[in-house]
Amino acid sequence: MEQKSVSSQYSHPGHSETGKRSAVVLSVFLLLGFMFAFPKLTLEASREGLLLWFRTLLPTLLPFMILSNFLIRFNCIEKILNPFRKIWAAILGLSPYGAYAYLLGLLCGYPMGAKLTADLYSQKFISKKEAEYLLTFANNASPMFICTFVVLECIGHEELLLPSFTILYLSDYLCSLFFRAYYRTESNNERFCVSFDRQDKNKKTETSPTYPLGTLIDASIMNGFETITKLCGYILLFSILAKAINQFWYLAPMGKYLLLGTVEISTGLAQIAASTLSFPWKFSLLLSFTSFGGICILFQTKGVLNQSHLSLRPYLAGKALNFVLTFGLSWSYLLLTQLVH
Prior knowledge:
Layout: H1 2-37, H2 39-73, H3 77-81, H4 85-91, H5 96-108, H6 112-122, H7 128-135, H8 143-155, H9 161-183, H10 196-207, H11 213-248, H12 253-263, H13 265-273, H14 279-292, H15 295-305, H16 313-336
Helix pairs in contact: 2-6, 2-11, 5-6, 6-7, 7-9, 8-13, 8-14, 9-14, 9-16, 11-12, 11-15, 12-13, 13-14, 14-16
């Protein structure tokens, strides 16, 4: 009986892994079939994806990635954020290093929050619990993306700029409060994150810059280029996938909008904005999918987490809750302001 239970224990993960691989292989073949059958649409989607990467992600994310890598490797974050440690702990439940990942992730957009979380955890500046907690709420759309694309272009009402920011950031903060309670240390009911003083003393000798300055700069640049190149690949693939969905969807339009918003954020938001949905539905779905990010962002996040071996489950749980909270807050705002008819 014992041998049987042991064998059954190890058989399930194998079946699960085989199923995942089969689904991926089937998806790749279907995507290849679309590319061969519709080369013009494929070229159009590839250009759109490359332009998005070249015009938006490359100039906005790459400099921050390089400089952030350097600051982490050179132990500069402590001097910058440690004076405000009590504020980070009280408001966000984070150490100064965790606050750095959150703030820069908020400023730079997807997937910078996850990237910094993985880097800080890999170099032992934050604990695993703090890293998992950060993944539930620290990976968000950038203010520039929200302002220009989501509000001005998709929603089309400049007066809703402040309400949109408030809804998105409030839902993210509520999400952090929910998961802070979950990740709280059970033994002493204190905040989950490792004491900054104790952690810093233990790790300072390990992470002090013992390499020449030029080597640190080179490593930071190479790390940034490796990450940004991976993001380019994901954006290309999902741009083609979104184009295929848009071409072959023959069911209810609402299903297409929901699927496109789930798959790729930029294409999905543009389709929702151009749809015949009523304004309350448009507004609520646009903000909700902005907070969710989509499967393309999920794969980008997985790509930056790979070397750290952090699980995607906290990120998925956080994004699911964030979607629900954002939709509820959006609809409630419209009800309160009598914009729902």
